[in-house]
Amino acid sequence: MTDDRVGVLPAVESTATDIAEMRIRGAATIADAAAEALATQAHQTQAEGPEAFREDLRAAAQTLYETRPTAVSLPNALRYVLRGMTGETLAELQASTIARAEEFQRDLAQAQTKLGEIGANRLRDGDVVMTHCHSTDALACVEAALEDGKEIEAIVKETRPRKQGHIAARQLREWGVPVTLIVDNAARRYLDRTDHVLVGADSIAADGSVVNKIGTSGLAVTARERGVAVMVAAQTIKLHPDTMTGHTVEIEMRDETEVVSKAERAEIAGDIDEELRVENPAFDVTPPRHVDAIVTERGQFPPESIVVLMRELFGGSTGEPWEP
């Protein structure tokens, strides 16, 4: 990737290329790289005055944002750093921007540990948790509870079609947690002996809607019917201030071969193949009314209060497109 905007440094362009081509990937890794790139832009600036510096930083942020605009951690990192760009002189602007980027990176490095400690406070000795998909944030809560000396059991949904639940089950067994692995359709049956549904999130909208692996919404609705608390564990880099409600988030549709093989498709379709439609959505949206708490490294919040945290962290109005 190249950028012909005046003032954007080659180091920033290089980071942008690595993000775009997925050599840098993962929510936290992308956010860390973006903050580091803005710090580099500030440190090595060629701007001759305060206004030129601000323009260059915004151009650098836009260059980074355009690499993967749907990766919510990326604009969140950029917003956070740009909000700290304060001062009247060029030297003051440089110093404040670099300090803000370093602060973001320090907080990010400690975020999952803090989140786990907060989430563990909601788990009691002897609790049974039901998990869906594989979330390192959600498992951090279990790990912290174990470190506190609590005994925790887990009912793990396979999470088809890619069976990410198997990854979660393996990690929990390595920690010595008793695990019952179940098929997705058995969730309602096993909620009768579940104390908490514990899931992660790919992103969280301003109204507290949770976008997560397909099947999360149905599980949350059933859990609410059964009186089982639903806890969502997500670092603040997953908050999505651009989106007022989760239903405006574009849902990724994955390849149908994850659901049926070519041979299975041919068998099902028979002689009318052109009329067979196979859809494989990766995520769904859980309305905030079905979530009891969203646990972050900044504390735990009822879903309807998450917008307050978004404004505190990222400023500006929620539900509006990214602007550097």
UniProtKB/TrEMBL annotation:
Q: Name one GO biological process term.
A: pentose catabolic process
| SUPFAM superfamilies listed in its UniProt record | NagB/RpiA/CoA transferase-like
Query: Binding residues for substrate, per the UniProt record?
Result: R25, G26, A27, A28, R68, N212, K213, K238
The record, for InterPro entries, names: IF-2B-related, IF_2B-like_C, Initiation_fac_2B_a/b/d, M1Pi_N, NagB/RpiA_transferase-like, R15Pi
Enzyme nomenclature, EC number = 5.3.1.29
Q: Which residues form the active site?
A: C133, D202
Pfam families per the record?
Answer: IF-2B
Q: Which reaction does it catalyse?
A: alpha-D-ribose 1,5-bisphosphate = D-ribulose 1,5-bisphosphate
Which enzyme type, at the first EC level? Answer: isomerase
Q: Which domain of life is it from?
A: Archaea
Keywords attached to this Swiss-Prot or TrEMBL record, sorted alphabetically, are: Carbohydrate metabolism, Initiation factor, Isomerase, Protein biosynthesis
Q: What family does the Swiss-Prot or TrEMBL record give for this protein?
A: Belongs to the eIF-2B alpha/beta/delta subunits family. R15P isomerase subfamily.
Miscellaneous note, as given in the UniProt record, is: Reaction proceeds via a cis-phosphoenolate intermediate.
The job of this chain, per UniProt, is described as: Catalyzes the isomerization of ribose 1,5-bisphosphate (R15P) to ribulose 1,5-bisphosphate (RuBP).
Protein name as annotated: Ribose 1,5-bisphosphate isomerase
